[in-house]
TrEMBL record:
It is found in: Periplasm. Residues 38-147 form the Organic solvent tolerance-like N-terminal domain. One of its GO terms (biological process) is Gram-negative-bacterium-type cell outer membrane assembly. It comes from Moraxella pluranimalium. It comes from the Bacteria. GO terms for cellular component: cell outer membrane; outer membrane-bounded periplasmic space. InterPro entries: LPS_export_LptA, LptA, OstA-like_N. This is Lipopolysaccharide export system protein LptA. Component of the lipopolysaccharide transport and assembly complex. HAMAP family: LPS_assembly_LptA. The gene is lptA. NCBIfam families: outer_YhbN_LptA.
């Protein structure tokens, strides 16, 4: 069982995980408390690895992450986040990006977050939806900084993109 100091460090590190993910989301999210729930939490001072397991959930404002397991890799020199990996069947994440763009939802067997590049990679039965549009494939890369999306099929499957119909009343189908 973790002692109180290690548990406090683990919760603090969870806060560090959530903070960079909200950089391009609603500004109010950063001012909200972070709530992390897990059946187990471990932290290694030597390696800088924090692991949460058993129905892991993180919430901060509109950001919500749910996974079976979450591992955070820290830089051992300055304790900044290098990367985070969430796994599950599926692991999910959602967040309101802006009021105009609305809610973005992602799910996959594995969600990798690279803190340096700001890239989220969804792998294995991956799906990303926002504003009525969706991307599905084996691997989806999403830039939190730029909003760019890249999807790959793999395993004999193709990428599927679905876009909502144009709601402009001046447009009446194809001409």
């Amino acid at each position: 069982m973790l002692n109180k100091l290690n548990f406090a460090k683990s919760v603090f590190l969870a806060c560090l995980v959530a903070a960079p993910m909200i950089a391009s989301a609603l500004p109010s999210d950063a001012n909200q408390p972070i709530r992390l729930l897990a059946d187990r939490a471990t932290y290694s001072e030597r390696t800088g690895v924090t692991t949460y397991s058993g129905s892991v959930t993180i919430e901060q404002g509109t950001l919500k992450i749910a996974a079976d397991n979450l591992t955070v890799n820290l830089n051992t020199n300055n304790r900044s986040i290098n990367s985070a990996v969430a796994t599950g069947r599926p692991a999910t994440m959602q967040q309101i990006i802006t009021q105009e763009k609305g809610l973005a939802k992602g799910q996959a067997n594995r969600i990798d977050y690279d803190a340096v590049s700001g890239i989220v990679t969804l792998t294995g039965n991956a799906k990303l939806t926002q504003a009525g549009s969706s991307f599905s494939g084996n691997v989806i890369r999403y830039s939190l900084k730029d909003g760019d999306v890249e999807a790959n099929g793999g395993g004999g499957k193709r990428v599927e993109l679905i876009f909502p119909p144009n709601t402009d009343t001046n447009q009446r189908g194809l001409r």
